[in-house]
Structures are given as structure tokens and as C-alpha cells.
Amino acid sequence: MITLTPFPFTQLISYLICFILFFILYEQILYIKKKRFIPGPTLVFPFFGNAISLVRNPTKFWAHQIKLAKSTNQGISANYISGKFVVFIRDTELSHKVFANVRPDAFLFVGFPFGKKLFGERNIIYMMGQEHKNLRRRIAPNFTPNALSTYITRQQIITLKHLKTWVELSQQQGPNPMPLRNLARDLNLDMSETVFLGPYLDPKARERFEHDYFLFNEAFTSFPFDFPGTVFQKGRLAVFRLEKTLATCTEMSKVRMEKGEEPSCLIDYWVQDTLREIQEAKLAGEKSLPPFSSNDEIGSYLFDFFFAAQDATVSSMLWAVTMLDAHPEVVAKVREEVTGIWSAESNTLITADQLRDMSYTQAVAREVGALVFPSTLESSFQGFIEPDRFDPDRFSKDRQEDQVYKRNFLAFGAGSHQCVGQRYALNQLVLFIAMFTMLVDFKREKTIDCDELAYVPTICPKDDCMVLLSKRCARYPSFLQLDQFTK
Fold this sequence. Notes:
Layout: H1 9-35, H2 51-56, H3 58-70, E1 76-81, E2 84-89, H4 92-100, H5 115-119, H6 129-139, H7 145-173, E3 178-179, H8 181-197, H9 203-220, H10 231-258, H11 266-283, H12 295-326, H13 328-339, H14 352-357, H15 359-368, H16 374-380, H17 401-404, H18 422-439, E4 440-444, E5 453-455, E6 459-461, E7 466-471, H19 482-486
Antiparallel strand pairs: 1-2, 3-7, 4-7, 5-6
Helix pairs in contact: 7-8, 7-18, 8-12, 9-10, 10-11, 10-12, 12-18, 13-15, 13-18, 15-18
């Protein structure tokens, strides 16, 4: 008879502890081997690395990485986040090499340490190679001059709607300043819903969409604990619902575009070109749909557009107000230029041609930039004359620093992952600056550390831009299309 001796529990615990200690040692050795002489933490916290400090205080985290990168001629620093060895780059040429070599065997474009888990696998950020090129080709018709002209109309109408609300709220506050960050976020989300989806979101659907997007935003700056009831899981599930809503909007757009109606929003331009390719595939005898043409696929990539258009633009609007308040001479020049081209009392929309004629206002918008990722911010202004000084004239015809140092300006990325919607983003910022300065008088409440950088997740003023607003114009423009576009 054979007697089975139970495996001692204490011995099992001993083996488990040994395994964990071995893994921790292996992790530290691997980190040190990769780090070599790059400035960075000597040792890292097991498993999580510095993910906790990144989430808890991103401002301090990135400031430290910048300090380390500046301490060496290489212009780089190292860290370890959730099992990933991370290199922070502030050197412009090295940044170009990274952007040019985004592929499985070289560099991966992360964007956000826990992004793939939150966004899902089907996300333009994580695509590369020919598949990524094909998708960008499909996206291109969304940003033709004709499409951008359509968006300009809606951008102005939504901007006016929110500026009026801002002034009313400020008047209700009396002498107390109010923070602009959440108001700018609401403006921008309304803008994206209107420009991207047009008539396909009714009021109830908008309310649900905005609630889900809020949950996603909360998850973006939370700890990545994917358990029931956690902020992160709520955000992940919200992304799933948002993509489903966008897929439904795609289906509705296909119905309209198949009838031959004119595009009225971004999704219509996307669907119009998609239907053309589907028809060509049918005529060629192909039985399967072309890539990126199903409702679910388009819905998922539309969500990427929403994400790309949100925080970066909100950040830019806040910095525009911040810099304009600090430079009244710039405000005066913007108002002088815009007054010669457009009047609020004219009750007419600013046209695409008029927008192009606002060369100084365009320069102000470009000087503000789209401050998104800390490393590209550090790279973007190298070589420029006095890069830390707010100086829109650097983009003038006489100086043309944007051409001389064009390679160094990385605010919109570079290479195959350069922002495809940068013209749309700049148009929105120029329109905002023009209308804000013409329709509103503003004063920012200054505190000692109000201009320090806060990462939420893009770069914003630490005080959320506290301002007092009042109506400047004799009367607001009366755009007849307002009700039509904002129902």
C-alpha cells in the first residue's frame, strides 16, 4: 500500500517566496542592464515600477524626468513603468529617429502607459506599417479644404454658444473668478460631437455620450485596477459603449450618404468615401468589404478622433487665454487684425478665406501650440530664438522661424504618426482666439504658482485658468444656423 504524504504548506510558501524574490532580482537586473549609463532611478519598485508616482503626481514625475534628461548630453532619461522600460527623450533629432521607427522590432508609440487596456487593441495609436498607412489614407478625405470649410461653420456656432454661457456664469459669480478648464472641456466635447457626428446624436444620446466620456476621462488618470466598481473598469466599459454609439452613428450616416445627400459633418465625409470604395470593390467582383469600412471599425477609430481632439485642444485654449492675459499688446494686435476682416455685428460667419487672412492670429495660435506630451514639448522649441518667451512674431514673414526650425517643432508629432487633424485643430484655436478677444473682456486672477504646469493628462495651467469675464461687443452675432446645428 502506497501512502501519499501531503506537501507541507510551509514549504510551498517558501518556494513561492523564493520565486518572487528571484523574479524581483531578475527584474532589477534587466532594468539595470537596459538603463546602463542613462540617468534614471538606480532601482525600481517591483512589478509597478514608478507607475504609482506617475499617477499620483504626474507634474513632479515629468519634471524629474526632464531634469535628468537635461543632466546629460544625450538628452534622455530612463524609468520603469508597469513592467515596461521607458525612455524619456528631449533631444529633437533622437525624437525624429523614434517617430521614424515606430514598428514591432523598434519603438512602440505608447501615448499612455495603460492605454491598450483602456482603449482596446483596435486603436490607431498602436497601429503601424502598411495597415496604419491604409487607415490614414482612408482618413485623409475628412480633412480636405472642402471638409474643413464645413467644420469651420460649426466650430464658430458652438464657440459662440459657449462664450455666451461663460460670460453669464462669470456675471453670476460677481467679483469672484471662475476656473475655465472644465468649461473649456465642455465646449470642446460639444464641438467634437457637433463637428464629427452632426445630426446623428439626439439630446438623450448626447447626454449618455458625455457621461460615458467623463467616465473614460476619469479612468485615464486613475490607477489601472480592472476590478468591478473601480474607476478604471468603469472607464473601460464606457469606451465600449462609446464605440457602439459611434458605430450606430456610422450606420445612420451611411443611410443618408447612400441617398446622395451632401456631407454635413466629419462622419459623412468618412462614410461618403467608404461607400465609394465599397462600390468599387463590388464592381471589381470582390466579395468581402474593404478594410476599415464596417460600422464597428469606423466607430472605434472615430473614438480615437474624439480622444485626440479633446485634451490637447482644451490645453491650447487655456494657454491661449493665459498668454493673452499676460500680453495685452498681443490682444490689441489680434483685435486690430480681426476687426479689419470680421465684425460681430455683421451677423456673418467667418469664412475659410477670412480665417487664412488672419495671419497674426494664426501666429498667436501656433505660438500657443498643442502641448500634449512632455517629451515633445521639451523638443519642440529647440533652436528657436528665446523659445521660452511668448513671441508670435517668430512666425512672421520677416523672421519665419517656423520654416528655419521646422524640423524641431514636434507639437503635432512627426513621421507616420504625425497628427492627421492638425489643420482642424489650428482652425479651431484661431477661431477661438478671434471670437474670444472680440466678444469678451477678460482678466485672469494671478497667484504665485498659477502658471506652473499640471498634467491632467495634457499640460494645463496649475490654477485651471481662473478668470473674470464680461461682454465686450455691443451685441453678439446672430447666426441663423444656430438651432439647426445644435439640436
